Amino acid sequence: MIVAITLSQSSSDDLIKVVFLLIILAMNDVVDTLWPYPRPDSPPLLTPEQAQHTLDVWLLPNFSMLTLFCMLEPLRVANRFGSDLFAWRLRSLDGKGVVASNGVSIEVNAELSGVPDDASLMVVSSYQPEADVSAQGRAVLRRIAAHGGWLGGLETAPFILARAGVLKGYRVALHWESAPAFRREFPLLEVSSSYYELDSRRLTGGGGVASIDIMLSWIELTYGPALADAVGRQLIHQRHERSPVDLDVRYARLPRSVVKSLAVMEANLAKALPIPEVCRLAGQSQRQLTRLFTMHFGETPKQCYLGMRLDRAQQLLAGSGCRTTEAALATGFQHLAHFSRAYRARFAESPRETAARDAD
């Protein structure tokens, strides 16, 4: 803004006053816009009655403690910047404490049933997300969605939201290990490769330390990038992009034919292609491709392809309820005995042992 001021020569004192006034106004404007430093007189912990936004958090048994802490700390730090911004309430289905996956018990503030219709509710789960979710819990999610409330889910919680039918029309992000099983159970939902997906009514993400970036993005959506960046600096956290590093970036130093081969393999895990066909699609002779794979990975294209398929099978078996036969067929194995031998050789346990361990 440009201000034109006309003064006479006899009004030098007034000019000094005006200059000082403009300096003070400019300093105040910078403070309000850039959020440069946390104000020590502002209480970091607020009640829902004090805060502009309250986040209700539904904790499921065996939830990730890391996800919970990384989710709440950005909100706490944001409150140090001079406004009563965020409060949070921890909830469980019965109002009793919840034991995290690391064995630590966390006390909660209230039962899930008492959450308001227009709440902002975040669901945090980890192993066996469906084991402790009753029809009552799904009804609460549907009630909030019907009233236009805000719903979020981290790690495996998108399974819970999807089973309640509140993710239709939204892109879904979740922990990479659970993505194959999610696609299999919900083929009509679009699964994103990003660490998280956020819009005005839904938030889903993989959890873990990425929860810091998730909440910083929520702060940015609500209050702007200046506050989000300031909170990140206070946490000594360098914000990351929403999406994982592209294949071209990860493999920037690899020959183009090797990168093409890996892309072909990744796109054909469910129906394994013969190695000569992989070579043809990559535009490279089998002899030369074998030499390049051995040089860069220490294994042949066939061995690398087999390892990729087995890794995908392990993802399907771990925590998804997928049976051994289903995992084998989903990763291009026609003979169960061959699949079991290759799986044991790679992971030192049978597919059934993986499935049984993660089901416990």
**Number of helical segments with 4 or more residues:** 15
Morphology: globular
- Name of the level-1 CATH class of the largest domain: Alpha Beta
Q: In what order do the strands lie side by side in the largest sheet?
A: 5-2-1-6-7-9-8
Report on the structure:
By secondary structure, this protein is of the alpha/beta class. The chain has 3 domains: 1-34; 53-234, Rossmann fold, CATH 3.40.50.880; 249-359, Arc Repressor Mutant, subunit A (Orthogonal Bundle). Helix content is 47%, strand content 11%. The protein has helices spanning 12-34, 65-78, 135-146, 157-163, 179-185, 210-223, 225-234, 247-250, 256-267, 275-282, 286-297, 301-317, 324-330, 336-347, 351-359, and strands at residues 53-59, 86-92, 98-99, 105-106, 110-111, 120-125, 150-155, 196-198, 202-205. The protein has a 7-stranded mixed beta sheet, with helices on both faces. It has a two-stranded antiparallel sheet with strand order 3-4. It is globular, with a radius of gyration of 27 Å. Residues 1-10, 23-37 and 245-250 have low confidence and may be disordered.
Keywords:
360 residues; alpha/beta; Rossmann fold; Arc Repressor Mutant, subunit A; 7-stranded mixed sheet; two-stranded antiparallel sheet; 15 helices; globular; disordered N terminus
Q: Could you outline the blueprint of secondary structure elements for this entry?
A:
Elements: H1 12-34, E1 53-59, H2 65-78, E2 86-92, E3 98-99, E4 105-106, E5 110-111, E6 120-125, H3 135-146, E7 150-155, H4 157-163, H5 179-185, E8 196-198, E9 202-205, H6 210-223, H7 225-234, H8 247-250, H9 256-267, H10 275-282, H11 286-297, H12 301-317, H13 324-330, H14 336-347, H15 351-359
Parallel strand pairs: 1-2, 1-6, 2-5, 6-7, 7-9
Antiparallel strand pairs: 3-4, 8-9
Helix pairs in contact: 2-6, 6-7, 9-10, 9-12, 12-13, 12-14
